[in-house]
Write a structure and sequence with these properties.
single chain; about 500 residues; alpha/beta; fumarase; 3 domains; five-stranded mixed beta barrel; four-stranded mixed sheet; globular
């Protein structure tokens, strides 16, 4: 009989969470490099380059790949012959591991989990509790699959109960464009087919945690229905032309992974969950011999590449910038920002807008400023700030009209597309919207020279910061005339690729 000691179980999960915070899986690095070599759109190629450069920096510095260090998902397959040496429940041990990992002094991870989700939404402070799933299986070991799932990709989870005769391919091709770029493509699509509604969602989540092997499947060909479906979806989703960060291009997904399960004759449940460019997962087995040991990739596994857009990028001094200066910026143009900018996310925006509606003075001056949608990781050592990549700009769209009208704001920096209402406000107020690359948080933080909290300190990572930046790389997403690269570029690249029939695209 195998005895699993409390210390070994907790330490293994805590170590794994630290490990995946700064090491991409080798298969992901290879697939992303292949996408980089194949990419023909310069903007998308530069985005992939930033993701790969960031990945190597994180591996070297042992700092998070993304500022959103995720909500922890743990899948345990527990052998029925295992005996536990502990007085705690399994979920309590998992949560202790999460607490230790996310508060590790050498690599603090961002606490993003909020209690009372329908009410006060109070940060738990250590990213607990985790989401734990357990199954009992024959055997005397414990198999652990663990992931830290980012909120941006999780927000794009989709489910539908199709009729038995409906096409899964048609639904996926209709749904993926509706997900926008907030899930930070290129990444992996996990799909669950069958079972019941909750079973399909769990299968989709588990599928996200598998290794990338689509090129092997292409080479040998499909041997069953699911493999054939994977190949069809891989080709057709990439033919949509969405591309890296939604900038248009050849690679939107690195792989499509599918799990299926028998279902009721009247139903065809289908779930789809994307995994982002911060793909973080680990798999290990505990056999009673001690904590698990994870083998890091070799630095030689990362390609030697450089950032492409920096030499031709427009250099911008944020401290002297006026609204007139941004009027000739073009969608897709690369910029390097230097000077001061302010940060705010959802909770801070809610407070700011409430204050504006009550006629109260704001705690900071946004006149002629840019606002960066970010919740950074706490700094360690001599860092001024931890990894500080962008959050999804779309979530701030409902606040954008009043912020532009009432504050003198020139523009915003986030990731992904803006809504028609936000774009209309940007056009009306002759402002601009920029994107930083999601999945390049540590690289972005290297451009931040000073950081301090200037308002709403009680909000933790959602407090308003003032950043002083030097040559921070960004791309113009919406210009002052309301032209959006996320609306234009995927259509252009879908037409260039030429594999999606117009009749199917319009469904």
């Amino acid at each position: 009989m195998t005895i699993i000691r409390e210390h070994d179980f907790i330490q293994s999960i805590a170590d794994a969470l630290q490990f995946i915070s700064y090491y991409h899986p080798k298969d992901f690095i290879q697939a992303m490099h292949q996408a980089y070599l194949a990419e023909q759109n310069p903007a998308a190629k530069d985005a992939i380059a930033q993701i790969l450069i960031n990945s190597r920096l994180c591996a070297e510095g042992h700092r998070p790949i993304c500022q959103d260090t995720g909500i922890v998902n743990v899948f345990l397959s527990i052998g029925m012959s295992v005996q536990w040496d502990t007085q705690r429940s399994i979920e309590d041990m998992v949560n202790e591991a999460v607490h230790r990992a996310y508060t590790h002094p050498d690599n603090i991870l961002r606490a993003s989990v909020l209690a009372d989700p329908a009410g006060k939404r109070q940060n738990t402070g250590d990213n607990t509790p985790a989401i734990t799933h357990m199954t009992l299986v024959p055997g005397n070991t414990i198999s652990v699959n663990i992931a830290a799932k980012g909120g941006g990709s999780e927000a794009k989870s989709k489910f539908i109960m199709l009729n038995p005769s409906d096409s899964i391919v048609d639904w996926v091709l209709k749904t993926v464009p509706s997900m926008g770029a907030g899930w930070c493509p290129p990444g992996i699509l996990g799909i669950g087919i069958g079972g019941t509604a909750e079973k399909a969602m769990l299968m989709a989540k588990q599928a996200c945690m598998e290794n990338i092997d689509i090129q092997d499947l292409i080479a040998r060909g499909p041997s069953n229905t699911i493999e054939a479906l994977r190949l069809e979806l891989y080709e057709k989703v990439n033919a949509l032309g969405i591309g890296a960060q939604g900038l248009g291009g050849l690679t939107t997904v690195l792989d499509v992974k599918i799990h299926d399960y028998p279902c009721h004759a009247a139903n065809k449940p289908v779930a789809m969950i994307p995994n982002c460019a911060a793909t973080r997962h680990a798999h290990f087995t505990l056999d009673g011999s001690g904590p698990a040991e994870l083998s890091p990739p070799e630095l030689a596994d990362w390609p030697e590449i450089s950032q492409h857009g920096s030499n031709s990028a427009r250099r911008v001094n944020l401290d002297t910038l006026t609204k007139q200066d941004v009027q000739d910026w073009k969608p897709g143009e690369s910029l390097l920002l230097s000077g001061t900018l302010l940060t705010a996310r959802d909770a801070a925006h809610k407070r700011l807008v409430d204050m504006l509606e009550r006629g109260e003075p704001l705690p900071v001056d946004f006149n002629n400023k840019f606002i960066y949608y970010v919740g950074p990781v706490d700094p360690v050592g001599d860092e001024v700030v931890g990894p500080a990549g962008p959050t999804t700009a779309t979530r701030m769209d409902k606040f954008t009209p009043i912020m532009l009208e009432k504050t003198g704001l020139i523009g915003m920096i986030g990731k992904a597309e803006r809504s028609p209402e936000a774009i209309a406000a940007i056009k009306q107020h002759h402002a601009v919207s920029l994107i930083a690359i999601g999945g390049a948080a540590y690289l972005v933080s290297k451009a931040i020279r000073k950081a301090k909290i200037v308002a709403f300190a009680d909000l933790g990572m959602e407090a308003i910061h003032e950043f002083t930046v030097e040559n921070m790389p960004v791309t113009v997403a919406v210009d002052s005339h309301g032209v959006s690269i996320h609306a234009q570029a995927p259509k252009l690249w879908q037409a260039k690729i030429g594999k999606i029939p117009v009749t199917l695209e319009s469904r």
